[in-house]
Automatic annotation (TrEMBL), chain A:
The keyword Transmembrane helix applies. Keywords: Membrane, Transmembrane, Transmembrane helix. It holds the Pfam family DUF6691. The keyword Transmembrane applies. This is Uncharacterized protein. The chain crosses the membrane at residues 38-57, 82-105, 111-131.
From TrEMBL, chain B:
It is a multi-pass membrane protein. Signal peptide: none annotated. It comes from Zunongwangia mangrovi. It is found in: Cell inner membrane. The keyword Nucleotide-binding does not apply. The chain crosses the membrane at residues 25-45, 79-98, 142-161, 181-202. It comes from the Bacteria. This is Uncharacterized protein. Pfam families: Sulf_transp (PF04143). The keyword Transport applies.
């Protein structure tokens, strides 16, 4: 039952990513050129509701659908890993015009060359795993 | 009850009502729906984050024998693989059942002009640039290299930064996490460098 729930959430997310055009290479390029409000509107409105909702969950101690307490795990404190990792991710995001979510969505939509981006992303993840101990975190 | 079902299905049968689904969704619909996705996962007792699936799949492929970063209980992440599978199905449904053919993206005329100058003739005429994402590119080694390098940077950077757009820009910032803000600033530094300084060299 829960499994079906996750699958349905994924389908919903995939449709939203595609229909919002957040999965379009063109929208990412346009965003980094500051030539449209579209992507900023998407991220901004998602965040506006996200910040309010998370506060409400914390203040009211809301429980999950299954009655469990909801824990927000704070991110580890650091600077270099977030800044350097972020810059590297941003370079790839702008070059391939897709972040990890849209990679899966575009594969489903039948844009086969995105599978090359996916293979690269797997390889990049693997390389990180190999080099992790040598990198500043 | 039955009448209501007939009424609703009758409405959907009218093309007029379907137009808003077939057309691209505006930001003020899309953004809240992304927040809704995050909250659904939170209330399912999980966190919204797409790039961690890459680590899970590396482990499934046996990467744990090469680096202990991949030595974790990936079976506990199966739920996220189901979200991934759903996203693939959602992309299929959106492209083939919920979009007009051809699916175009109405980017600004300035953007179209800039892209034409870079050699992207498909700007404004397609969902993705055909110069990078049509099946012709499988016979163009340089284009494949661009896509592969883009992917490597995404995968490496997302794991180094501990998350991608969903994990940091949406989930992390919603929880007012300073590390996520640093990561998102990094995303933008990288993206701006790529588009403004490296694109003219690459394309």
């Amino acid at each position: 039952m829960r499994q079906i729930g996750f699958l349905v959430i994924g389908i919903f997310f995939g449709i939203v990513m595609f229909k919002s055009e957040a999965a379009s290479w063109f929208r990412i390029y346009e965003m980094f050129k500051f030539q449209s409000f579209h992507m900023y509107g998407i991220i901004g409105s998602a965040l506006f509701l996200g910040v309010i909702g998370v506060q409400v969950i914390k203040k009211k101690n809301l429980k999950s659908f299954f009655g469990q307490p909801i824990n927000f795990v704070p991110k580890d404190k650091s600077f270099s890993r977030y800044m350097f990792g972020g810059i590297i991710f941003g370079l790839g995001w702008a070059l391939a015009g897709a972040c990890p979510g849209p990679i899966y969505v575009l594969a489903g939509a039948g844009y086969w060359p995105i599978l090359v981006v996916f293979a690269g992303a797997m390889l990049g993840t693997f390389i990180y795993g190999l080099l992790r101990k040598k990198l500043p975190h | 009850m039955l009448q209501a079902v007939f009424l609703i299905s009758g409405l959907f049968a009218q093309k007029k009502t379907m137009n808003w689904i077939l057309e691209p969704w505006p930001w003020y619909v899309s953004g809240p729906l992304i927040a809704f996705t995050m909250f659904l996962l939170i209330f399912m007792g999980r966190q919204f984050g797409m790039s961690s699936n890459l680590r899970t799949m590396c482990s499934m492929c046996g990467a744990d024998k090469k680096a202990d970063f991949f030595n974790f209980d990936w079976r506990a992440q199966q739920w996220n693989l189901l979200v991934l599978l759903g996203a693939v199905i959602g992309g299929f449904i959106a492209q083939f059942y919920l979009s007009e053919d051809p699916t175009t993206v109405a980017i600004s005329s300035e953007t179209i002009q800039d892209l034409n100058n870079l050699g992207f003739e498909s700007a404004g005429k397609a969902y993705l640039p055909t110069e990078l994402f049509s099946t012709n590119v499988f016979s163009e080694p340089l284009t494949l290299l661009v896509l592969l390098i883009g992917g490597i940077l995404i995968g490496f950077g997302a794991r180094y930064a501990g998350g991608c757009t969903s994990g940091h820009a949406i989930s992390g910032l919603s929880n007012l996490q300073l590390p996520s803000l640093i990561a998102v600033i990094g995303f933008f530094i990288g993206g701006l460098l790529m588009i403004h300084f490296l694109y003219p060299l690459i394309f």
